[in-house]
Amino acid sequence: MHFYQCSDRSIKFRTEDPELVDLGLWLTFDMGFSFDCCLDALCVVDDVLSGRSETAGYDGNDYEVSMSNLAAVFTHIGGPPPTSCPMPTVKSAVEEYWRFLLTLPQNPQVIRSYRPELPSHLAALLWWEEYRERPHPYRGRLEGIPAQGPE
User: Fold this and answer.
1) What is the pLDDT of residue 112?
2) Across the chain, how many H-helices and E-strands are there?
3) Is 0.90 topped by the overall pTM?
4) 92 torsion bin: left (phi>0), alpha (psi -120 to 50), beta (else)
């Protein structure tokens, strides 16, 4: 799966596997430009794959996603029948989407109130951890999510 930004700033994806279309749509539509949403998705994926949670879900604007350690089931709200995708593929795609978000320039017209002195992804990480009162499970495991800091 390949993610890219169009000249109109929208996010699109390309895949040759029709079974991955709902995965790509979930990431580009429900995550969009949001590091916060992507951090949630990374956590849910890690929770089920690590065994911290037997099942987990992610409710977005366009998709409801239920995950187990074997597969994720994508239900397009008001759309066609659900599709499923193996969890290793979901994990890889969510991690790749995070990496893609890191490559996008920050929108200078967006005014952030929480930790505006930090890059968006680090502010989102600190907010995520403060709200959930725990370290993000991807700390030190994925670029842009350092093992420690910032403070």
Assistant:
1) 87
2) 4, 6
3) yes
4) alpha
